[in-house]
Specification:
The chain is of the alpha+beta class. It has helices at about 25-30, 35-45, 50-55, 100, 110-120, 135-150, and strands at about 10-15, 30-35, 65-70, 70, 75, 80, 90, 125, 130-135, 150, 155. The protein has six helices and eleven strands.
Length: about 160
């Protein structure tokens, strides 16, 4: 998958829907999960549902049929920054809540634009293209390539995040 550039001092990347793992959505929002999802995640973590609630959910949430994941250091309790990089990693990605699965990244989303600006110094045009200096756009394109391919094979859109 190639990301064509525009001649000149600035380069562009077409609008995208690939999560580039900036972590802004996990910082700006709290994931909601059903009691069944909490049970499933607790089972995957090898802990009891009560331990899960005590360790990972927000006690301030008054919900009876659902829970909110707690934040730690300003982000989801399961989000961690990958050392030496500009990306984050979800510790429960393989069994994350439906509210996280339903999140669709996009160059049009405020959160994704915030992540582009913070991590790469890039912006988004009105047409949805990512813009910035040639070096920064190339660095971002290399990241997108690494997130969408594995051993030279393109990864399905649904397995990219």
């Amino acid at each position: 998958m190639m990301y064509p550039g525009i001649a000149g001092n600035k380069k562009q990347v077409p609008p995208f829907t690939i999560c580039f793992r900036c972590g802004i959505c996990c910082s700006d929002h709290q994931a909601i999960l059903s009691l069944a999802e909490a049970q499933r995640i607790a089972d995957k973590l090898g802990i009891t549902p009560d331990d899960f609630r005590n360790r990972y959910t927000d006690k301030r949430w008054p919900g009876i049929k659902n829970l909110l994941l707690r934040k730690r250091n300003g982000a989801c309790v399961f989000l961690e920054r990958v050392k030496g990089s500009k990306v984050t990693r979800c510790q429960i990605h393989a069994f994350r809540p439906l509210s996280c699965i339903d999140w669709i990244s996009s160059s049009y989303r405020r959160e994704c634009q915030k992540g582009l600006a913070r991590n790469w110094g890039l912006s988004v045009s009105l047409a949805g293209s990512v813009e910035g200096t040639s070096d920064r756009v190339q660095e971002f394109c290399r990241l997108l390539e690494s997130l969408t391919t594995c051993n030279g094979q393109e990864i399905s859109q649904y397995n990219r995040v």
